[in-house]
Design goal:
Shape: elongated
Low-confidence stretches: none
Structural class: mainly alpha
Strand content: under 5%
Helix content: 55-70%
Number of strands: 0
Radius of gyration: 19 Å
Length: 46
Amino acid sequence: MIPQNQSNTPIDPSSPIELIVFIALPILLIVVYFVARRQRKRKKQE
């Protein structure tokens, strides 16, 4: 099977939905991960 060309477009910075999904959401998930990890560490030490 030969891959077909797709009409993928780059992220449009003027679109608020794309900014939220591709920039804000990943950053938020990373921050939540580290905060949860820190809380778990503190809980284990008690």
